[in-house]
């Protein structure tokens, strides 16, 4: 058993003295069937939370050494007899081998902690299957979303939520209280029909990330192809120069910031569209179209992917001077200058452009890191709504403006140089500016007092064309009431 955090209970035990209505949770005996990884972690956690634990194993002698000395390890039937609440830490495939215990299990609460290997693997959930095998028991589904590791390391260091469902309210309440004493947050998921959904949760692979990842990949592919045409295919066709070496680093490094920048603007674009819709219809009670709803819900993931691309861009940029091609080009330029006897190669404008470009780039990356960190649930939970919206909304918008400055200083006057138009294609950075500048312009327009006021009123419940009751203070300070059209 690990010491430290695990040595003390995470929640103080409630005093139940003199209050017969409260079940004294800590001190209660809890049974665990099975002696595997989950059973062991569960037993350790239960013991540390003040419970008495009795473990039921097919081979108690061999397994006893794996458990804390405070836990009793005995045969399955013996263990079951000593308690009313039993965690079944056994795989579904082996439930039928527990049928011999049916008589001693009558009237007990069985907690099904099992998971499957595939989503919707069986017709009925594991918990429903267990309930069908032991009709004289009350089955509660729970604890399957926490891993053995989370149980060992303490709730502060892992997922704190324990999803629980059962057809029996009393049994569900008992298990919820046990979870609470163990330092977890029980979440009531309703009746047993939710068990299937609870069992699928640990098997889902990043469900909220699919759309943002496809979006990022789509953008990456488009910008990569565009940059490939400009940086590799164009010099080959026009000057028969082989620039394939640029693909792994240069082309990727011009693509990543485009994706990061456009993705960041896509975090703020749905908010602009939502505000336009509210202004147009004069109400906040009209449902947004599904695609906009989905987009609004995925802003966090889109923002995190934007940060990921920006961070990669920073690393790639730092590595640019390490390339052999870069060294050859430097030497080539130096030799050319020596041959031409050029002594002063300092171009003041270029120096300033680069200094500003790098500086604003670093600031933008710093702000993006802040946004990414504060979007993590553990950090977000420690912020109040005003702090969270200040960071995500105001600082996020500032990050977008600074990224725009970074892009503009990168481009400088290149947009006006006709040599930059390869196959008549404008430089990539000019394309990326389109969506972010639209968002920035829209935000500036929304901040005009006349529009801001209207938007604010709509968001506080005002509706166009609706008659509302009003209350006005009279000259004497008394209040008179009446009805008026709210858009007058
Ligand atoms: P495990 O290490 O393989 O342990 C399973 C235990 O089941 C064995 O130690 C065995 O204990 C017992 N058992 C009883 N009858 C059995 C039989 N007929 N054949 C084989 N074993 C039998 O598995 P685990 O990782 O602890 O998982 C146990 C349950 O917890 C599973 O349903 C799993 O889905 C769930 N779960 C596990 C985790 C995790 O992180 N490991 C997380 C969430 C949920 P005895 O030999 O002492 O009888």
How is this structure best described in words?
The chain has 488 residues and is an alpha/beta fold. The protein has two domains: 29-203, Rossmann fold (3-Layer(aba) Sandwich); 209-460, Four Helix Bundle (Hemerythrin (Met), subunit A) (Up-down Bundle). It has helices at residues 37-48, 60-63, 76-81, 102-105, 126-133, 148-153, 169-181, 195-200, 210-239, 247-281, 290-297, 299-319, 324-339, 348-374, 377-380, 385-411, 428-432, 434-446, 449-459; strands at 29-33, 52-57, 72-75, 85-88, 109-112, 138-141, 161-164, 185-188, 467-473, 479-485. Strands 3-2-1-4-5-6 form a six-stranded parallel beta sheet, with helices on both faces. The longest helix has 35 residues, at 247-281. The radius of gyration is 32 Å and the shape is elongated. It binds NADP nicotinamide-adenine-dinucleotide phosphate. Belongs to the STEAP family.
Overall residue-averaged pLDDT value: 89
Largest sheet composition: 6 strands, parallel
Tally of alpha and pi helices: 19
CATH architecture of the largest domain: Up-down Bundle
Beta content: 5-15%
How widely separated are the two ends? 71 Å
Rg result: 32 Å
Encode the helix/strand succession as letters. EHEHEHEHEHEHEHEHHHHHHHHHHHHEE
- The dominant shape is elongated
Strand order of the largest sheet: 3-2-1-4-5-6
Structural class: alpha/beta
Bound heterogens, unique = NADP nicotinamide-adenine-dinucleotide phosphate
Number of domains: 2
**Name of the level-1 CATH class of the largest domain:** Mainly Alpha
Low-pLDDT stretches: 1-23, 470-488
At the fold tier of CATH, the topology name of the largest domain is Four Helix Bundle (Hemerythrin (Met), subunit A)
Estimate the helix proportion, in percent: 40-55%
Number of DSSP E strands: 10
InterPro entries: Fe3_Rdtase_TM_dom, NAD(P)-bd_dom_sf, P5C_Rdtase_cat_N, STEAP_metalloreductase
Transmembrane segments: 211-229, 259-281, 302-323, 356-376, 388-409, 429-451
Membrane topology: Multi-pass membrane protein
Organism: Podilymbus podiceps
């Amino acid at each position: 058993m690990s010491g430290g955090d695990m040595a003390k209970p995470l929640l103080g035990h409630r005093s139940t003295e003199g209050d017969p209505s409260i079940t004294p949770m800590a001190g209660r005996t809890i049974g665990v069937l099975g002696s595997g990884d989950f059973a062991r972690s569960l037993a350790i956690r239960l013991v540390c939370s003040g419970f008495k634990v009795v473990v039921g194993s097919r081979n108690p002698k061999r397994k006893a050494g794996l458990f804390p000395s405070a836990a009793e390890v005995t045969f399955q039937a013996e263990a079951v007899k000593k308690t009313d609440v039993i965690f079944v830490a056994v795989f579904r495939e082996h439930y039928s081998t527990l049928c011999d215990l049916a008589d001693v299990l009558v009237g007990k609460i069985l907690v099904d902690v099992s998971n499957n290997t595939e989503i919707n693997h069986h017709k009925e959930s594991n918990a429903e299957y267990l309930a069908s095998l032991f009709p004289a028991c009350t089955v509660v589904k729970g604890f399957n979303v926490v891993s053995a590791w989370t149980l060992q390391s303490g709730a502060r260091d892992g997922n704190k939520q324990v999803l629980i469902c059962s057809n029996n309210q009393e049994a569900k309440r008992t298990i919820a209280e046990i979870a609470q004493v163990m330092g977890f947050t029980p979440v009531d998921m309703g009746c047993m029909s939710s068990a299937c959904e609870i069992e699928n949760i640990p098997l889902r692979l990043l469900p909220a990330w699919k759309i943002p990842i496809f979006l990022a990949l789509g953008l990456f592919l488009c910008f990569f192809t565009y940059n490939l045409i400009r940086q590799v295919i164009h010099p080959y066709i026009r000057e028969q120069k082989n620039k394939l070496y640029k693909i792994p680093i240069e082309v990727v490094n011009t693509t990543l910031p485009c994706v990061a920048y456009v993705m960041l603007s896509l975090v703020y674009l749905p908010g602009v569209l939502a505000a336009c819709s509210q202004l147009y219809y004069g109400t906040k009670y009209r449902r947004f179209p599904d695609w906009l709803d989905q987009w609004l819900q995925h802003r966090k993931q889109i923002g995190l992917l934007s940060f990921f691309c920006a961070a990669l861009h920073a690393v790639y940029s730092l590595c640019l001077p390490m390339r052999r091609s870069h060294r050859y080009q430097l030497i080539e330029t130096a030799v050319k200058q020596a041959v031409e006897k050029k002594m002063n190669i300092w171009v003041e404008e270029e120096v300033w452009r680069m200094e500003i470009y790098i500086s604003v780039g670093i600031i933008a990356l710093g702000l993006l890191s802040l946004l990414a960190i504060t979007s993590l649930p553990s950090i977000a939970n420690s912020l109040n709504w005003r702090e969270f919206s200040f960071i995500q909304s105001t600082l996020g918008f500032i990050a977008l403006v600074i990224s725009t400055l970074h892009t503009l200083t990168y481009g400088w006057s290149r947009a006006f140089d006709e040599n930059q138009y390869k196959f008549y294609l404008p430089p990539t950075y000019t394309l990326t500016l389109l969506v972010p500048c639209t968002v920035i312009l829209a935000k500036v327009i929304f901040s005009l007092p006349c529009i801001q006021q209207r938007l604010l009123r709509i968001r506080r419940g005002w509706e166009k064309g609706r008659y509302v009751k009003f209350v006005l203070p009279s000259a004497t300070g008394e209040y008179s009431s009446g009805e008026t059209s709210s858009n007058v």
